[in-house]
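In the laboratory, one determines a bound structure by crystallizing the protein with its ligand and collecting diffraction data. In a computational setting the workflow is compressed into a single prediction: the sequence and the ligand go in, and a structural description comes out. We illustrate the idea with sulfopyruvate.
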Amino acid sequence: MASPLRQVALDTWVSLVAQHTRPDRIHRCDGSEAEAAELHRAMLADGTLEELAGQSRYLHRSHPSDVARTEHLTFIASPTREQAGPTNNHMTVEESEQKVWPLFEGAMAGRTMYVVPYLMGPVGSAYSRVGVQLTDSPYVVANLRIMTRMGQVALEHLAANPDDFVRGIHSLGDLSPDRRFVVHFPQAATIWSIGSGYGGNALLSKKCHALRIASVQARAEGWLAEHMLIVGVRPPGGQRQYIAAAFPSACGKTNLAMLVPALPGWEIETVGDDIAWMHVGADGRLWAINPEAGMFGVAPGTSLDTNLNALRALDHHVLFTNVAVRADRSPWWEGKEPLRPAETLVDWQGRPWEAGGSSPAAHPNARFTVRLSQCPTARGAHEDPRGVPISAIVFGGRRASLAPLVYEARSFTHGIYVGATLASETTAAATGKVGVLRNDPMAMLPFCGYDMGAYFRHWSTIGRRLREPPKVFHVNWFRRGPEGRCLWPGFGQNIRVLAWMLDRVAGRGVARETPIGLVPTPGGLDLTNMNLSDDDLSRLFAIDAGEWLEETNRNAAFLARFGEGLPRSLLAEHRRLVERLEAARN
Ligand code: GTP
Ligand code: SPV
Ligand code: MN
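The predicted complex, in structure-token form:
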């Protein structure tokens, strides 16, 4: 049967997909409490979920070969390969119909197909968008219920423009990586995903809709869909300002979005932890909404010391995926709390595990799904239909060496260069080797739905429209010392860096020029009550012109992949950086 890659009306589309996938039943989700209770009951009965200690806290164990996004199985099916660009896997529409659509045939037999309407963005916002995901995974439905505004509210938004929604078709298939594909059709605003039930592969609202499809829409319509957290920061007695920050997967977005400030009197507001949709406002500033309503956060490393706010949010109504379980049925993961000697847990695959075991008890990409409103630092701005004005944009990576703790770009155009040349060590959020340095422009390498050369041009176009562009910074919380330990304690201490940024935005903070940008002067960063040695401080800010010249060579090779499509301003920034570094070396 032909695939419905057309903007057909919702009911027609649902029946076309059902004819092909042949579910036993169709359930249209309304997002009600009764519906959720029934879903949970059924999943507890068939073992999809287990109950954990605490109110409405559940555990799901995914298939051991389905534990992270699979970038090599993710495709952009735009009409031409050029439209997908050199960094995306491309598949033609014909190929997708021959290779992927047949995998959906009969895939839902014996299962229920859930029709899940969801709203991305605050209720009543002109920037919000509707999607509908068809899925045969009740676990996915339970996640979408937390991650999005799901059900009736989405249908109400849809009523204004009944054919204008992103169409996602998802089936677990047989969960075999050999028959796993995530294919995006930007022209038809359609997503097909088969063979995975995990995270960004399966919760189609998230990376597939809110980033890959939305980035294409954003370019056409003149806005930005970015892999960014949004955080409000208020100095003691001062005005709250909002910062948007792009870090690659598992590089600290969720943690920065809800940090517990180590400086007294500072207040944090969590607006978003993963995705920002940003528009140029009538006032010439950049305004951001968080399209999501929940967090799908990395569990390992989350503790009372590192992130008290996250733990408080995880007190009730949480779905945990691939964590370990203690005898008292509380969830556990590496870095959470110390275990008793020889304590026995159940690991993420359901096997007995003894404290100190050689393999991790929780999967390194174990996650929690929780409503954003449960976070103690959610103060309501995430529901504001206008969004929040952005004063600073931060790019950050996980780099054991080279990049200093923080530096400021010399201008917005230089900031685009800093974002375009962002590089970071790979993490467990995607399958493949961990710790390999790769270029990840604007932390969007796996998420930009079109040619990234055109994406950089789009950033330049937006920049020209901004009368009051945000200041742009780069951070690296992960620089290591000679013994391999992190030089910077991170987490709540990161407020010191945010404080300097806000000072810079206000035209106050003192900075010193370096070839790569501006860094705080020795007294510029508030380091009171911190045991940071002078040696570590100088290591954190060391800028080695020779190493940076090697970095510019690596970046030149990366940028060359985009050929003629690169904006000239980016190449000019690159040349100027090389000149400054050469002058500094001589
Ligand atoms: P995605 O959800 O995959 O996009 O990840 P994310 O960018 O939201 O990263 P998250 O905040 O979940 O952090 C990922 C890992 O990095 C966790 O294990 C954290 O404990 C750790 N981490 C976060 N912030 C810091 C920091 O400031 N310093 C150090 N050393 N580790 C951090
Ligand atoms: C990421 O990998 O950036 C995530 C997790 O936020 S997932 O939803 O799996 O994409
Ligand atoms: Mn993410």
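Residues 100 and 181 are 7 Å apart (CA to CA). Keep in mind that any predicted model is a hypothesis to be tested, not a measurement.
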